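Bench notes, afternoon.
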Amino acid sequence: MKRSTVIITMSFILSALIFCGYTFAEGGVVIINKGNSKSSLSASDIKKIYKGKKSGWRVVEQKKKSSIREIFSESILKKDPSEMERYYLKRSMSGKGQPPKVIDSSDAVKSFVAGNKDAIGYVEVDKADDSVKVVHEFK
């Protein structure tokens, strides 16, 4: 292989890694309705809410294959999305609770949360705006 080809290939790989690292580092934010009295939530509280161990919330989840769901699941829930699917199924089958409502996009999650006082969801950092309240950041 020619030296110039190796250099070009290595440059491409390095650029891809930097880009992927930057995208991952952006992370996301947990959002709630602006009318909710909470000003922040800890990762532990969010985990309890998403696992059905804290009631009073309308929990929404991003679609199964979204990168933000993977980041949220591993960062906050400490499980990958497939493990959480099994967890939700087991709780549902045992009558201990229903899985979160799955919504197809971050814009739809934001809209749902903005329209429901007791809702909680998560979106990419750049999707949050003044229609919702950010209560936690994650990477």
